Automatic annotation (TrEMBL), chain A:
InterPro entries: Leu-rich_rpt (IPR001611), Leu-rich_rpt_typical-subtyp (IPR003591), LRR_dom_sf (IPR032675), LRR_domain-containing (IPR050216). This is LRC58 protein. It comes from the Eukaryota. Keywords: Leucine-rich repeat, Repeat. PANTHER family: LEUCINE RICH REPEAT CONTAINING 58, PTHR48051.
Automatic annotation (TrEMBL), chain B:
It catalyses: L-cysteine + O2 = 3-sulfino-L-alanine + H(+). Fe cation binds at residues 31, 33, 86. Belongs to the cysteine dioxygenase family. GO terms for molecular function: cysteine dioxygenase activity; ferrous iron binding. Binds 1 Fe cation per subunit. The gene is Cdo1. Its EC number is 1.13.11.20. This is Cysteine dioxygenase. The keyword Cytoplasm does not apply. The lineage of its organism: Eukaryota, Metazoa, Chordata, Craniata, Vertebrata. Catalyzes the oxidation of cysteine to cysteine sulfinic acid with addition of molecular dioxygen. It comes from Burhinus bistriatus. One of its GO terms (biological process) is taurine biosynthetic process. Pfam families: CDO_I.
Length: 306, 137
């Protein structure tokens, strides 16, 4: 048909499926199919990932349709840079989303998504992630591995706190959190289960650097010892395995907003590394020892909370 | 990655005329208008305007919503500090929106408010572009 076609916009045409004729378009890099009736089986042509279209497509906009799940056919689009499924009927995100290795822009706002798979963090180039207007209750700490993330939109969800690891998102410039039931007062998890004897032994081995070789222990214990997590409290060199205290501490951002972050500490006696900053803005601070939170706070110039 | 403010005309210092471009899901914070008149006209798409009462001086609770409405293409709105505060947002997940804003006298800073506490914070407003040229900050 049109072998030189690069951009195709079939938005608002009432389409219930995108035909196989599109597969042969080798130059098509932008396909806009917003506000249609796509969503049923066969909405996208079979073999999309392997077709010429699958290799050329960079931008795909399927917002305003009726998708109840991310169509598996599009997970083969290894060159796709921008995907929008805003305003559909998604209840979740498939872990195989990590197949979209080139994805930089992902818009999933306005769906019914309840949780985020940690595999989303495996997208190496993701810089703009929109999850607003969903039903998300928690953010997996693995999202902190999205080193290229610059903008994260989480407004109007069901979040009560964020994982402390969010401070590790070095390039994050924008974060929207309004319209979430974020806890405003200090909350401590009262049900602290005391550690098992195995855990206590494991902690001692790790913190005292008791030497051991794989031949000294059963394989399952060697594996167990390798799973030690470091207590984030900088004054505590401790580790923990399964038994930890969940604690919510507030981090001041630019002296403006107090964001509740969830910490895992090795014991109730440990204190969190992120102490609540003072009320006044510390942007002119000359002190050498920067609280990790104020470093992150200065980076996050556009925390949209209010 | 958020809405852009693009200055079109500064009327010899008497007013600022600018075009705001809102991507899907983009919204502003709750803000005041530094004692100026503010007119807004929707050029493309739709924008939701939520009006808020000024927080109490000693207030430390959720801000009170006065009203909300969706402004359609070509509709106009007006606000000033005696009317209240507002948040403007593009709630569409499929369409972007464009609005024309007239502020008189011009102002380059305002207060933004935390909806949960009423605490205000002064911010400097910046332009993404001025007279068609990208503003590098």
């Amino acid at each position: 048909w049109f072998p030189a076609l690069e951009v195709l916009d079939v938005s608002g045409t009432g389409l219930a499926e995108l035909g196989a004729e599109l597969l042969a378009l080798p130059r098509l890099h932008t396909l806009l199919a917003k506000n249609n009736r796509l969503g049923g089986p066969g909405s996208l042509p079979k073999g999309l990932g392997q077709a010429p279209l699958g290799r050329s497509l960079r931008v795909l906009n399927l917002s305003g349709n009726r998708f109840a799940e991310v169509p598996p056919a599009l997970l083969g689009l290894r060159g796709l840079q921008s995907l929008s499924l805003g305003g559909n009927r998604l209840h979740g995100i498939p872990p195989d989303i990590q197949e979209l290795r080139s994805l930089e822009f992902l818009y999933l706002g306005g769906n019914f998504i309840t949780s985020i798979p940690p595999e989303l963090a495996n997208l190496p180039s993701l810089s703009y992630l929109v999850l607003c207007d969903n039903k998300i209750q928690s953010i997996p700490p693995q999202l902190a591995q999205l080193h290229s993330l610059r903008s994260l939109s989480l407004h109007n969800n069901l979040l009560t706190y964020l994982p402390r690891e969010i401070l590790n998102l070095v390039h994050l410039e924008e974060l929207s959190l309004r319209g979430n039931p974020l806890v405003v007062r200090f909350v401590r998890d009262l049900t602290y289960n005391p550690p098992s004897l195995q855990e206590l032994a494991g902690r001692t081995i790790k913190t005292r650097n008791v030497p051991y070789a794989p031949s000294d222990l059963p394989e399952n214990l060697v594996r167990y010892l390798s799973l030690a997590s470091n207590c984030p409290n900088p004054k505590c060199g401790g580790v923990y395995f399964d038994s930890c205290v969940r604690q919510i501490k507030f981090v001041d951002f630019c002296g403006k907003y107090r964001i509740p972050l969830m910490h895992y500490l090795c014991s109730p006696e440990c204190s969190s590394p992120c102490s609540s900053a003072s009320q006044s803005s510390t942007s002119q601070s000359e002190s050498d020892s920067e609280d990790e939170a104020s470093v992150a706070a200065r980076r996050m110039q556009k925390v949209l909370l209010g | 990655f958020r809405y852009t403010r693009n200055l079109v005309d500064n009327g010899n210092g008497k007013f600022n005329l600018m075009i705001l471009c809102w991507g899907e899901g983009h919204g502003s914070s709750i803000h005041d208008h530094t004692d100026s008149h503010c007119f807004m006209k929707i050029l493309q798409g739709n924008l939701k305007e939520t009006l808020f009462e000024w927080p109490e001086k000693k207030g430390n609770g959720e801000m009170t919503k006065k009203s909300e409405r969706v402004l359609r293409e070509n509709q106009c709105a007006y606000i000033n500090d005696s009317i209240g505060l507002h948040r403007v947002e593009n709630i569409s997940h499929t369409e972007s929106a464009v609005s024309l804003h007239l502020y008189s006298p011009p102002f380059d800073s305002c207060n933004t408010f935390d909806q949960r506490t009423g605490h205000k914070h002064k911010v400097k407003m910046t332009f993404y572009s001025q007279f068609g040229e990208r503003t590098v900050c």
